[in-house]
């Protein structure tokens, strides 16, 4: 598949539809080479990826559940269990974050986070090109110190999401995309 066809065909697949196979650890290193090609002002390479497979997904679920309970002491048991189950829906989860270089004289934090987002998008396209499906998930766990800490992130770091990876167990409908002309302005 050529590059344009690949990018035009990529779309998110719900995590609940993702099953084995996933890329092996060695395959992931090859796919992550595409992330290393992201635009990166200052050559900081601020992106970081944490591979979470097998029973470690349950440990991540415990982190999510504990963080939710601390964030909202009135939360119900059903919501706690729902949070606990999110990481185990897909067979492979990558935590993606920016290892922030504070007070950089030329590269503000926003540029470091944007570079990480570009690296994650390159990875999503590479996964699609290799026949895998994925979804990039954000939400309250990304902004919660009680999630960041147990994953080894420093308080200064920015958790930008979790990429759930696998092979779809059924075809998903092609999502209609807007006309790009509606998003292009001329000055």
Describe this structure in words.
By secondary structure, the protein is α+β, with helices and mostly antiparallel strands. The protein has a domain of 116 residues: 3-Layer(aba) Sandwich (NADH Oxidase). The chain is built from 6 helices and 5 strands; from the N terminus they run αβαβααβαβαβ. Strands 1, 2, 3, 4 and 5 form a 5-stranded antiparallel β-sheet that branches. Helix 2 crosses helix 5 and helix 3 packs antiparallel against helix 4. It starts with a helix and ends in a 19-residue tail after the last strand. The model has no long low-confidence stretch (mean pLDDT 96).
Record the SSE blueprint:
Blueprint: H1 3-9, E1 18-19, H2 25-35, E2 47-53, H3 56-71, H4 77-85, E3 92-98, H5 109-129, E4 133-137, H6 145-148, E5 158-168
Antiparallel strand pairs: 1-5, 2-3, 3-5, 4-5
């Amino acid at each position: 598949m050529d590059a344009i066809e690949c990018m035009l065909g990529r779309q998110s697949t719900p995590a609940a539809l993702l099953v084995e196979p996933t890329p092996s650890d060695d395959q992931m290193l090859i796919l992550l080479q595409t992330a290393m090609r992201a635009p990166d002002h200052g050559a900081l390479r601020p992106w970081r990826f944490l591979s979470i497979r097998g029973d470690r997904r349950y440990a991540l679920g415990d982190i999510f559940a504990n963080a939710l309970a601390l964030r909202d002491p009135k939360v119900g048991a059903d919501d706690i269990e729902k949070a606990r189950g999110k990481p185990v829906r897909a067979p492979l989860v990558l935590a993606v974050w920016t290892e922030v270089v504070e007070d950089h004289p030329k590269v503000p934090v926003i540029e470091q986070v944007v570079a990480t987002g570009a690296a994650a998008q390159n990875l999503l396209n590479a996964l699609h090109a290799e026949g895998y499906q994925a979804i990039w998930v954000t939400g309250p766990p990304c902004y919660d110190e009680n999630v960041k800490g147990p994953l080894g992130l420093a308080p200064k770091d920015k958790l930008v999401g979790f990429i759930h990876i696998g092979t779809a167990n059924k075809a998903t409908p092609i999502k209609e995309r807007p006309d790009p002309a509606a998003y292009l302005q001329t000055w």
